[in-house]
Specification:
This is Pyrroline-5-carboxylate reductase. With about 210 residues, the protein is of the alpha/beta class. Helices cover about 50% and strands about 20% of the residues. The protein is built from 9 helices and 8 strands. The radius of gyration is 19 Å and the shape is globular.
Length: about 210
């Protein structure tokens, strides 16, 4: 296999994930494959040294871990291409919200190896929080390969698949809440006469302290 990880779809969440992976230095870009329908996206990743594929089939054949990062509306249309190329060693890391492990097994066969993941955009600064659930077919060695990739830019917590929807406000959507809260507090701080940068440093440090105290 020419790549360790291959990404089908390279939108915002994959860009954030790979930005964090790059910072870690654990994986070289040329060992990570990219397939995206946008030529501009592909060109941007190619310029950064990533291995860009012209088809899903070639990417799946090349990588042990395949990150499925397309929307639920699109995922149906790529299953046949994936099925034609997968091997017994292929591990799927699914970032597609709401798509169950059972659904993948119905499309690709009951023996396929699938790990569902709820990621966070904070991976881009090496502080990702990844909630994952794995199929019974995923052996410990398979899981370690995915865990190693994700933990290069954050923490990984394994949870029951029954909680994959419930975890969204805890990690998946939580950054949006924090961003909004921060903007509201900074706006009020500036209104009261504080310099915005000073208020931001004070508030961020306080948030870090609260996390340590919990």
């Amino acid at each position: 296999m020419s790549t360790i990880v291959g990404c089908i779809g390279a939108g915002n969440i994959v860009k954030a994930l790979l930005a964090g992976v790059e910072k870690s230095g654990v994986y070289f870009p040329n060992r990570i494959g990219i397939f995206d329908v946008s030529q501009k996206v592909c060109d941007d990743f190619r310029e950064k040294g990533y291995t860009v594929f012209s088809s899903i089939d070639d990417l799946v054949k090349s990588a042990r871990v395949v990150v499925v990062a397309v929307t639920p509306q699109v995922i149906d249309s790529i299953m046949q291409q994936i099925k034609n190329a997968l091997s017994a060693d292929t591990i799927f890391l699914s970032l597609a919200a709401g798509v169950s492990i059972k659904w993948y097994q119905e499309q690709l066969g009951k023996d396929c190896k699938v790990i569902r993941c709820m990621p966070t955009l904070t991976a881009q600064v090496g502080l990702g929080a990844f909630a994952v659930s794995r199929a019974e077919t995923v052996a410990d060695d398979d899981y370690k390969a995915v865990e190693c990739f994700l933990s290069s830019c954050g923490i990984v917590e394994e949870i029951p698949e029954s909680l994959m929807c419930e975890v969204v406000p805890i990690n998946g959507s939580a950054p949006a809440y924090f961003y909004h809260m921060t903007r509201v507090i900074l706006k009020e701080a500036v209104h009261m006469g504080f310099d915005e940068d000073t208020a931001l440093r004070l508030f961020v440090q306080t948030m870090k302290g609260v996390q340590r105290c919990c």
